[in-house]
Specification:
about 260 residues, single chain, 2 domains, 4-stranded antiparallel beta sheet, 6-stranded mixed beta sheet, Rossmann fold, binds adenosine-5'-triphosphate
């Protein structure tokens, strides 16, 4: 049987009297696209922060390919093949798109696993490799013609693409995306969704938080639903759409989105 790439085991986070996440467990398998959904304040970002070692859990643990990573430092995760994005854009505005991407590739060049299989002889070869890889990602994310544009001069949607490309350029095995479609128009949202599907076909695994239900239903293999910090459901998009607890949790919020998508 395939081993999970990510195991979330009984994660709990308390901030003083507030329990942001309570006893949440689930697994993600290689090649899956798994969405985490839930109403505002349900604990999605806190869960992501614990999985990516940004916030230590009060209880529980996280395993990446069977290895306990709960107490790792953030910077130790990229070499292990885990990358994430944030709700707020994390790009260098005063650098061009290609320069942003080339900073992302340095992670890969330092990656033990990668270095063992692909030794580059000189700094010049490394730079050439980084440039070619960055151009490949520029094309893949539809940023052609903008490679030498300063990121701060781009639209929000284009900046999101740069951030996404920078996150995946090091060929991570597991990518966590915090609201990758937030702030994007419909066309940009669908393009982002298609790029995620394309990268999955190339072997990447995705866990993402999102509010745009129609897109989630289109690309997610499985969905984990949080409400008031607890996991209230887990299943395929079809199962989640007709789950009574999920429909109840969304009453007054995005219920119509869940049912109509
Ligand atoms: N650093 C903190 N200190 C105190 N309470 C916090 C902290 N971070 C989050 N919380 C609380 O934990 C709960 C979950 O917040 P979280 O941001 O994880 O939810 P979310 O599902 O990501 O929400 P949204 O969809 O609005 O981004 C909220 O009640 C929030 O106020």
């Amino acid at each position: 049987m395939t081993e999970p790439i990510l195991q979330v085991e009984h994660l709990t986070k308390r901030f003083g009297g507030v329990t942001a996440v309570e006893d949440v467990s689930f697994e993600v398998f290689p090649g899956e696209i798994v969405a985490v959904i839930g109403p505002n304040g349900a604990g999605k970002t806190t869960l992501f922060n614990m999985i990516t070692c940004f916030t230590p859990p009060t209880e529980g643990r996280v395993k990446l390919s069977g290895e306990n990573i709960t107490n790792k430092k953030i910077f130790e995760l990229a070499p292990l093949g885990m990358m994430r994005t944030f709700q707020n854009l994390e790009v260098f505005g005063s650098m061009t798109a290609i320069e942003n991407l080339m900073t992302g590739i340095s992670v890969q060049l330092k990656n033990r696993v990668f270095a063992a299989g692909f030794r580059l002889k000189s700094a010049r070869e490394e730079e050439q490799y980084a440039y070619e890889k960055a151009m490949e990602l520029i094309e893949l994310t539809g940023l052609q013609g903008l490679e030498h544009t300063l990121v701060e001069q781009m639209s929000y949607g284009q900046q999101k693409k740069v951030e996404f490309a920078q996150t995946i350029i090091s060929n991570p095995r597991l990518v966590l995306l915090d609201e990758p479609m937030a702030g994007l128009n419909e066309v940009e949202t669908e393009a982002m969704a298609d790029t995620i599907l394309q990268m999955r076909d190339r072997g990447m695994t995705f866990l993402f938080v999102e509010h745009k239900m129609a897109t989630i239903m289109r690309i997610a293999d499985r969905i984990v639903v949080l409400d008031f910090g607890k996991k209230i459901a887990e299943g395929t998009p079809a199962e989640i759409q007709k789950n009574e607890d999920v429909i109840r949790a969304y009453i007054g919020g995005d219920l119509d989105d869940v049912k109509s998508s």
